[in-house]
Amino acid sequence: MGAIREVIERLELSGISKVAMGALGDPEVIPLWFGESDIVTPAFIRDAAKAAIDRGETFYSYSRGTVALRDGLKVYLDRLYGVDVHPDRISVAGSTMLSVVVACECLLTEGDEIVLIGPYWPNVRVAAQLMGASHVDVRLRDGGERWELDLHDVEAAITPRTKAVYVNTPSNPTGWIMREDEGKALLDLCRRHGLGLIADEVYHRNVFTGRDPAPSFLEMAAEDEPVFVLNGFSKAWAMTGWRLGWMVTPKHLAEPMAVLAECNNTGATVFAQSGGLTALQQGEDFVASFVARTRANRDIVMELIGSHPKVHLSEPEGAFYAFPKIDGLTDSLAFCRRALHEAKVGIAAGYTFGAENEGHIRICFAIEGERLRTALLRLRGLLDKL
Ligand SMILES: Cc1ncc(COP(=O)(O)O)c(C=O)c1O
To answer: What Å distances lie between residue 341 and 12, 23, 251, 365, CA to CA?
Structure first.
């Protein structure tokens, strides 16, 4: 203690990593714990990055991203959402996670509060804590058929110290997709209270509802509002290891964004950005085939886990996670450790996704279907024994 900030001394691994560390790479374990599939990034994307290295793209570039990728992002976003995003609003980041940190740097300081709409991915809570802020969890309501956002719950969580709201749609871990009317109402609420909004849309293409992309705050917010729309390449194009993301931020922040990027990592890896550009330009077939795979996998999860008498599971509308509630479960971490040792299946503990989730587990269903089926049958056997 002493020189090191207390918040750092107290950091603990998440309930995803706590289960996984120690068993990573064990060939007997079927991994459903992290948010990724078993698909290697498509060859045409890898080839683009290799070609960039061979062209000698190994130098510093603009900290907000190469001109080519920022231009490509504008074309992609304009086409996808039918908008006209001002180029000053677009910054490339060295991962979506880093863009979460940047948004927190912009909105939060010591003593502030952020409302986290949950269940939510735990790293977001840590990013807020690192700024010295505290968090208030507002849980979506599990309506049985789908999870729902109740604006009264958000309103009730706001205090004079609240500075921002975080929402992730499509959601990790529930698979909830915010409807357009829910988004507009949330944005209105933020306007009324003068709050910043962090919209994490990294699963924007991972949708099973037929509305691709999922509704976005890019379609709703004006260009200079304190709204940070965060996104990345990891989940749509199987690029988790590339550490590449982007954000659309208030227009007047272009210069501060460049400075923040300089301080954080002096911009994303330059040749990775060539891969990202190719993903945007040529990746539509891959996106479609990956969604078809995960949609079929979602049905397998509903069949094998959703039907279990001890399980309550609202059907995921997007992303690639199921977040079942298990009757009588009071220690999700212990259950996940049991699943690892007895069933050789890696899953994530519910408690880590915010308040009131101790009775849940998270299953990532992005891996190949037959292997997923094997893992879920093992898990089902464990549920039978509970
Ligand atoms: C909700 C959410 N936001 C952000 C991220 C981070 O994405 P990236 O790999 O691009 O940093 C994840 C990764 O699992 C996520 O689930």
So the answer is: 22, 10, 51, 20
